[in-house]
Each structure stands twice: as structure tokens, then as C-alpha cells.
Known about the structure:
27% helix; nine-stranded mixed β-sheet; globular; alpha/beta; 13 strands; two-stranded antiparallel ribbon; 8 helices
Amino acid sequence: MTSGGAPGLELFHGSADRLRSIKNGEVQLIVTSPPYPMIPQWDATFRAQGADGFDAMHDVLEGAWREAYRVLVPGGILAIVVGDALRSTHGEFRLWPNHAEILARASRCGFAPLPYILWKKPTNKPNAFLGSGFLPPNAYVTLDCEFVLLFRRGGLRRFPPHDAERYGSRLSRSERDHWFSQVWSDVRGAAQLRDGRRTGAFPPEIPRRLVRMFSVKGDTVLDPFAGTGTTLWAALELGRSAIGVEWDDDAYARLAEEARGRGLTGSEEGPATSVSGGRDRRALR
Length: 285
Ligand SMILES: C[S@@+](CC[C@H](N)C(=O)[O-])C[C@H]1O[C@@H](n2cnc3c(N)ncnc32)[C@H](O)[C@@H]1O
């Protein structure tokens, strides 16, 4: 965000593990959802980045958590939405615990893990058992939760006494009681199809809550796996600046188009909003 200015948007076409255009400590909050390892939808994306298999896919993501640590201010929060995967490989059917792997690897990058949120999606569909589920013992439990993993960089964020932005960002009692409980079961998944492609988008309510819970007005929120930009639009709506990074050419083009459609076109004279066409280039300010 330009100091004292209106909240702005910057988009970068680049990779989450190389955020060269973002300075150390430039960001107060990261809300993101990476491609999920071992989910077939993201196989080609990982393969294009040289990764095949659970460990190699998490090696790619670990680079992003390392960069996240660098660009966050002390006390800044990293919120990662991710689900586990169920998959057979080499004839073995098993759970691939993405949440546990990210907890371990982000901690290794220096983050302190905090209690996480289980996002249990309301569904009308019956559980997909292996077999009927009535006859023990071969059924397995339905994978109907995603995780919102939460990490802090260092100690608590410090503010001057009675800081106006902080007090102006106050939560209501019911927001606090509800959002800080460990299970969220009232948020439906987002429509995922856009132009015939599955996007992996999360519903706007997820970043809206996280932005309100873990940042104050005037902060800068980063999504290094920006996708359709759900985090970015939520941050801007809530008076925060937003930085988005997206690696995929088509997804980046659609994101930039959407920013223009929302009137967020780059201009040196205009608001602090910019769309960068180049790979990881500092965008117009
Ligand atoms: C699960 S989706 C994010 C969806 C997003 N939360 C939304 O609501 O639209 C993951 C995104 O990360 C992008 N991606 C994959 N590898 C990346 C990388 N190395 N750096 C940045 N983005 C990457 C994918 O193209 C995809 O758009």
C-alpha cells in the first residue's frame, strides 16, 4: 500500500517461491490456498514445476512458505487453506496428509504454528463409503473437512496505544465468538467451474473472515497462489491493500482481466492499483 493512500492492488505473474518484487516485511497477512498435492486436478501443475509425488510436490510448496516468512512483518500471520488427499499409488490406497506436511514444513521455515480451523463443508450428499458402510470393517470416514492452517512469524504484532486503524477494525462479539471457534460448519464451498475449467476457488466468506480476524484496515494482504483472486477482492473490499501472485498463464490473464473489469486498471496517476504484465516485475504504482 502506498502510505496514506487508498488501498491498492498489485498483480504479479510469477511463482510463489520467488517473490523478488516483494520486499522483506512488506506484508501483514497472507491468506492463500496452494494447489493440493496428490489431488489429480493439480498433477499437471506440479509436473510442469518438476514435481511428481507427495514429497516433491511439498518441496515446491515449501519454497512458498520460505518466501512467505521473508515478506511478512514480525507478528504477521500466514493462513493456508488446504485439504488432505485420498489416492491409490502403486496399488496402495491411503490418505495423503497435506495438512500435516505443511504444518511440519512451514514450522521448519521458522513459523510458529497456531491452533487451526477445521472447515467442515455443509453437504446434502450421502457419505461416499467404500461398500455400504453398514458392514464393518472396510469403510472409511468421509473426507469432508478442509484445514485453515494458521502460523505466526515471531511474536505478537505491536501497535501504539489506541491505534485508530486497529480500533476501527474491531470485531463484534458474535463474530469473535463464532470465528475464533475451531470448527466452521456454516460456509459452503464455492462454485468451481469457470470457462469449463475447475479453479479450486474458495468461497469469499473464508478470506473475508480471515482478513477481519488477522489484519487491520490499511494493512497489505498477499495471496501468492492467487487463482481467481478471491482473497484479493475480499481484502480490497475490507479496506486493505492486496498483492496477488499467479503462475499459470491463463489464470493470470483471467485475473488481470477481472481486475480491469472491476475498474482496477494500472495508471501512474490513478489509485495505487496496478496490473503487471511481466513475470514477477514490480507493477506500476
Ligand atoms: C487452489 S488454487 C487457488 C484458488 C484461489 N484461492 C481462488 O479462490 O481462486 C491454486 C492456484 O495456484 C496457482 N499456482 C500453482 N503453482 C503456483 C506457483 N508456483 N506460484 C504461484 N501460483 C501457482 C494455480 O495456477 C492456481 O491458480
